[in-house]
Amino acid sequence: MPHPIMFDDDDPVLAMLRERALALPEATEKVAHGRPTFRCGKMFAMYGGSRKGETKTPLPNALLFIPDPAEHEALTQDDRFFVPAYVGAYGWLGIDLAAAPDWDEVAELLDASFRQIAPKRAIAVLDG
Question: Where are the domains of the chain?
Answer without folding.
Answer: 12-58+82-127
